[in-house]
Amino acid sequence: ATAEKGGEPHFMRKEILEQPRALRDTLCGRVGLDGLPRLEELALGAGEARALEHVELIACGTSWHAGLVATRHLAELARLRASAEVASEYRYRPALPLGAEGGGKALVVAVSQSGETADTLAAMRAAAAGGARPVAVVNVVGSSIAREAEGVLYTRAGPEISVASTKAFSTQVATLFLLAAHLGRLRGTLSESGARELLAALGRVPDQLEAMLPEVAAQARALAPRLLDKRGALYLGRGYGFPLALEGALKLKEITYLHADGYPAGEMKHGPIALVGPQTLVVVVAPQDRLHAKTLSNLEEVKARDGFVVAIGTEGDRELARLADAVFWLPPAPEPLNPLLAAAPLQLLAYELSVALGRDVDQPRNLAKSVTVE
Ligand code: G6P
Fold first, then answer.
1. Which residue of 82, 126, 194, 206 pairs with 23 in a disulfide if CB–CB is 3.0 to 4.6 A?
2. Is 369 marked active-site?
3. Which helix (H) or strand (E) holds 68?
4. Is the CB of 370 inside a 6 Å radius of any atom of ligand 1?
5. Are the beta carbons of 79 and 188 closer than 8 angstroms?
6. What is the pLDDT of residues 267-324, one digit of tens each?
7. Name one GO biological process term (predicted).
């Protein structure tokens, strides 16, 4: 059994550590020799891309969080209004025309690791019935969602066995990022030089991750015993950091059974701050970005209430180090790529706490890898 786990004690750890390899596979052949995005799998013409007015991402669980990251990439790179909706809501919402009758202006993207999630499949069918020609971002080749979609972008994460999704998430984020860059080029909202710069930085992410993972893993292991008295956790972030906060909180809930909430840091004052005290773990996703100063001021408020702060920040950030009880350091990267680097520390933190608490890491209670019934 350890052999199939690549010598690791759990599939989850193996899959977290595999992310550099998985991301290299995701990118393979999708960046041209000219350094620009190449997504020929997606038969989408420049005319169609220019006519788009919005993008609707539909997904469940971790895949929904990847969709939320993508809404920000689509706005920034392709100047597209985008929403990410939970599939179980999307499928039952009042039907709005999406296709030619609706002006042909919406691109619907189903995001799923397994390609078999019942709600996501049903939501995709509802979008198709409304006139959309949905595309899918899927890991499992030949799965139901992949077969029914009009176009598929495979994430190429490889088999994911652990119920808690890890490499599927980062490869979804990378695939959706490529989609946003591709649409940005087709729509003329992303310059050639801007695209080259971002894609070159994207190409460096697997190496950056590979370099940081051993230290992050060791740090998470050392930190876990200090967190055993925590009653619950609040995950905070702004911008690209907010969906990461949701994903970090989900990972913790899934495999430690501790209560955890993900919140936009700016929303903390509207409720969650009432929970902050010495027994609250506060995890903040705070890499160097446009909103950094604002996130730090939220942290000051957490510190004033004796919350235990674990931060994820960019190397060299002294201010963050001063405010946090522990910091996972990320190498510098363009803001839109921070999610690809910040996911692993969140995953390893949840993993080590789950191990320290003696939980069943790979097969947490009440959860299934793929939910094929409603
Ligand atoms: C289940 C899994 C999650 C996953 C979600 C969506 O709840 O436990 O890890 O994110 O389904 O699955 P999908 O295969 O559609 O991405």
1. 206
2. yes
3. helix 61-78
4. yes
5. no
6. 999 999 999 999 999 999 999 999 999 999 999 999 999 999 999 999 999 999 999 9
7. amino sugar biosynthetic process
- Biggest CA–CA distance in the chain, Å, is 58
Which residue, judged by its Cα, is nearest atom 15 of ligand 1?
A: 112
286 phi and psi angles, rounded to 5 deg: -135, 55
Q: Which long-range contacts (CB under 8 A, 24 or more apart) does 256-260 make?
A: 256/350, 256/353, 256/354, 256/357, 256/359, 257/357, 257/359, 257/364, 257/365, 258/230, 258/231, 258/232, 258/233, 258/353, 259/231, 259/232, 259/233, 260/232, 260/233, 260/234, 260/235
Cβ of 113 closer than 6 Å to ligand 1, yes or no, is yes
Look over the chain and give the mean of its residue pLDDT values, rounded to a whole number.
95
What value of ipTM does the predicted structure carry? Answer: 0.99
Q: How far apart are CA 236 and CA 255, in angstroms?
A: 19
Range with lowest mean pLDDT among 70-74, 116-120, 131-135, 231-235 = 131-135
Q: Which atom of ligand 1 is nearest to the CA of 163?
A: 8
Q: How many residues does the chain have?
A: 374
Which token pair is 226? 């200090």
Bridge partners of residue 230, in order along the sequence: none
| Cα 249 to Cα 81: distance, rounded to the nearest angstrom | 26
**Which residues, in sequence order, are CB contacts of 360 under 8 Å at separation 6+?**
none
Does residue 161's CB lie within 6 angstroms of at least one atom of ligand 1? no
Q: Do 162 and 362 meet the contact criterion of CB atoms below 8 Å apart?
A: yes
State pLDDT tens for residues 92-130.
988 776 765 555 688 999 999 999 999 999 999 999 998
CA 344 to centroid of chain Cα atoms: 10
Q: How far is the CA of 63 from the centre of ligand 1 (A)?
A: 7
